[in-house]
Amino acid sequence: MIPKTLTVQTPAKINPVLEVLGKRPDGFHELALVFQAVGLHDDLSLTETAPGVRLSITGSHNPLPADDSNLIVKAAKIFLREVLNDKAGVRIALKKRIPLAAGLGGGSSDAAATLIALDWLFETKVENQKLQSMAAQLGSDVPFFLTGGTALGTGRGEKIFPWESGPEIPLVLVKPEEGLSTPAVYQSGKAMMTNGEKARGMEQVLREKNLQKFVGKLFNGLEPAALFLMPEIGEIKQQLLDAGALGAMVSGSGPTVFAVAESQEKAEQIAWKLEGEGWTVFVTKTISAGVERI
Ligand code: C5P
Q1: Which of 25, 82, 171, 197 is least enclosed, having the fewest CB within 10 Å?
Q2: Catalytic position from the list 42, 43, 110, 141
Q3: What is the pTM of this model?
């Protein structure tokens, strides 16, 4: 019998607004943030096997372990144990495009895609609430990728409230050579604390589909921390604005900077100007989808 195989693509994200509300007793930070899926994506192919999990990776510039420390392996093990009592296994091939430690949610997206794709592969029809709880165990950003599109996140980022999707926005993503560690950014003491109104206010701004207004409302309370740890980010922002971007902001805990362009053509021009500086540059756009079968 031919083993069952399934291929999915899973997007990166940016955060048009990220507000840090305060530090919690459990060591995490209370957040109010907007998640937005973008066209840049990874691909995962899953094949049913005897019990166990095997992962192979292609396309990653930086070394990415394929062992138990990988979030895909963790996600697959949780799913196989909790849903299938370890009676089945999977072989997963990851084609990596989303850079690592970048603030683009690549690892979280791969983990969510693993949960969804396993549910599809084994036709287990797991309840959404169960998927959400497995996702939240894996990381604060993972639950968002179960829905994709545009959403508000609260709590440590794991409580997701999907929003109507906004306009298609052309973007340029620029990632410095080095990554940033999320805990280091949160623990730098440089995060700006705000009250969550900016994140909630973005829902109405997106409905108005006014690019200038959207750009004026971009905010990231972690940006001062990312800039403190990696001053090069300031230079990237300036170069993006000089090249004609309408606005530029660090995504998540960084160090990737996303820039908003008035058209896809303009985004291509901006990207072209920033290439050759040793940075990784992508032209992409906001999307209303999440994990998709291909
Ligand atoms: O949830 P996740 O594993 O992605 O978080 C990684 C680290 O980022 C946490 O251990 C914590 O240091 C920091 N973090 C935080 N507050 C959040 C999310 C993450 O302090 N809301």
Answers
A1: 25
A2: 141
A3: 0.97
State yes or no: is 141 an active-site residue: yes
Assess whether 185 and 134 both reside in one domain. Answer: no
Quick one: which H or E segment has residue 184?
Answer: helix 182-186
Q: How far is the CA of 253 from the centre of ligand 1 (A)?
A: 10
Burial 142-177, CB ≥16 within 10 A → b, else e: bbbbbbbbbbbbbebbbbbeebebbeebbbbbbbbe
Q: How far is the CA of 10 from the centre of ligand 1 (A)?
A: 21
**Would you give per-residue pLDDT tens digits along the chain (294 residues)?**
778 999 999 999 999 999 999 999 999 999 999 999 999 999 999 999 999 999 999 997 777 889 999 999 999 999 999 999 999 999 999 999 999 999 999 999 999 999 999 999 999 999 999 999 999 999 999 999 999 999 999 999 999 999 999 899 999 999 999 999 999 999 999 999 999 999 999 999 999 999 999 999 999 999 999 999 999 999 999 999 999 999 999 999 999 999 999 999 999 999 999 998 899 999 999 999 999 999
Q: Has residue 290 been placed in a domain?
A: no
Q: What are phi and psi for residue 5, nearest 5 degrees?
A: -130, 150
Q: Are residues 113 and 96 in the same domain?
A: yes
Per the structure, how many domains does the chain have? 2
* 48 and 143, same domain (yes or no): yes
Residue 292 lies in a domain: no
User: Which of 104, 131, 163 represents a domain boundary (last residue)?
Assistant: 163
Cα–Cα distance, 183 to 195 (Å, whole number): 21
Q: What is the CATH number of the domain that holds 231?
A: 3.30.70.890
Closest-CA residue, ligand 1 atom 9, reads: 183
The residue range of the domain holding 174 is 170-285
The rounded Å distance from CA 79 to ligand 1 centre is 22
